[in-house]
Amino acid sequence: MSILDYCRRNPCTARPDESIREAARRMDTRGVGCLVVVDGENKPVGMLTDRDIAMRVLRRRRDPDATTVEEAMERDLSSVTVDAPVERAVRRMHTEGYRRIPVVDREGRLVGIFATDDAIQLLASELAGLAEAVRSQFPADLSAGHALPAHGG
Amino acid sequence: MFNLRDYEREPVTVEPDAPVSEVADRMDEHSVGSVIVVDASGKPVGIVTDRDLARRVVAAGRDPERTRARDVMTDKLLTVERGDPLPRFVELCRTHAIRRVPIVDGGKVVSVVSLDDMLFEVAVGVFGVAEATRVEMHPAARLTKRRRRREARSDAIEELRAQLSSLAHEVREKARAELASLLGGPFAR
Description:
The complex is a heterodimer of chains A (153) and B (189).
Chain A: E1 8-9, E2 13-14, H1 20-30, E3 34-38, E4 44-49, H2 50-58, H3 69-72, E5 80-81, H4 86-96, E6 100-104, E7 110-115, H5 116-136
Chain B: E1 8-9, E2 13-14, H1 20-30, E3 34-38, E4 44-49, H2 50-59, H3 69-72, E5 80-81, H4 86-96, E6 100-105, E7 108-114, H5 115-136, H6 145-183
Parallel strand pairs in B: 2-3, 5-6
Antiparallel strand pairs in B: 1-7, 3-4, 6-7
Helix pairs in contact in B: 5-6
């Protein structure tokens, strides 16, 4: 179960030296809440969310035209490579407290983004399959009140 | 696991005339992503999220000191009544693509429920099941390579589950304490 199969490809990006106003406009027109900040080689250097804009720019009374993406973005974010298992991405997001994590190729270039929402959907479909499997193992006459074998047969 | 009441959080409210810079202050001070806009009689008239601030203020080039909460709020406020079943909440989130819904009682907002809090609890539940399964697995029979690998994985899941569950506990207790001090009675368990 590789992360590449479940992440969203070609996420919206921003450059570190862009103004917050430009970044906010891009979020607005593209209908996203998050931009991956990449350098000239398309390698992630940070992440900027709509909440960062609200809390680190508007809340602090900074001028969105004079503030750069680099000044408001979240740095030091980790990423996972395309061949990483989903579990690793989920654990990383949990320990670091992020809802999204960039997915990069072996050279470190941005390929996609994986979000907790994607994890939930994946989990739901796996659980549905699992529930189906469990259900198929119940004896057919369970509803008639017959006892189950002690260890499921 | 699925009782709407278990996910209620104290609402953060602002007046319709509050400047959006103050709305951002309230969000930050209370560590929330949305505030409910209530009129002088306490009636909810809208909701402002952090996303609205980024889009409807910053992207739109408005002045945060001169823009009011009512200028950027979503005024078709979708709410659930206290006592409504959980599927009603889930249905609202699903059909309107929203994540936070105020709960009203007698026309006033008494709390806010977040889809994210709920999903978090679901994740904790799933990992709890994983742990219960691990404990039940018969220990002596097969010490195969496959089993050892599975155990290593279970250890990782267990670690994550413990972290998630202590965090969930903290969040729940805090919310309950806040609600108890605010409302008394049913939340003080």
